Amino acid sequence: MKIEERKLKISDHEFTVKGYWLDQISDFGKPVDYPVVIICPGGGFTFHSGREEEPLALRYNSFGMHAVVLEYKLIGDTPVYPMALQEMAKTIDWINQQPDSMHIDKDKIILAGFSAGAHIVAAYNGIGPNPTLRKKYQIERYKGQHAAVILGYPVIDMTMKDSFPDDDKVLHEISTDESLWKSQELLNKDSKPAFVWQTRTDDLVNVMNSLVYVEKMVQLGLPAEFHMFGSGIHGLGLATYVTKKPGKDKYLNKRASGWMDLSLTWLEMMNLLGSAY
């Protein structure tokens, strides 16, 4: 496996992506092009959670997927949006520019977002495939499309009461464009299939976030799968000892840890994983 860190640029703005690229397996006797997952970690738009970066990337690797971690724009001198959308589009474009020798199946680009990072993925699932919205958010010059999204304990509707961000100042630091506050309202007939999971007792992001997104997917007739686990805290990551914070057993959740296998089975069902074999 090859691990690389690259700096990508949009005008004078620079951001980091980390690639976890699979090697070919000589015993196969012929080259295999692997799907790739772009991971947007959580962190409340103030940091990128390491618990949702390499541990998830390596897990995806183990199931025959390349992985790229996108360290998107955080709250700062300017709002997170629309730059975060442009970073995603640029990352997809960068993947599409990779040579054939990288053996990437560019028709199988999966976006996986967690918590705040899931808001970027959820919003992009409405904007990225739609020509009108691509032009509005100045991403039409970038090439490539994603095929599906995976959302873990996602921030979807940032206006929802008793849920992140629950603070008008932070909300405007994330986006001054009100049309981006409710990512479920960005969904349209061009949006891609979605796998969504969350716990019923999430104390930071109200589980209704997941429900309103899935409801909108169903209304539009789009493929979707949703798993709500009965208990568990926010930010579980893999929900195993791999992403457990030291001394904090609340980050262990045997039932919720099944989300990864469920999502991979879903990708197989959607013909986005495993068909190369």
UniProtKB/TrEMBL annotation:
Domain BD-FAE-like, residue spans: 33-216
Domain of life: Bacteria
Pfam families recorded: BD-FAE
PANTHER family: AB HYDROLASE SUPERFAMILY PROTEIN C4A8.06C
Protein name, as recorded: Esterase
Gene Ontology MF, one: hydrolase activity
Keyword vocabulary terms for this entry: Hydrolase
UniProt key word Cytoplasm: no
InterPro entries for this protein: AB_hydrolase_fold, BD-FAE-like_dom, GDXG_lipolytic_enzyme
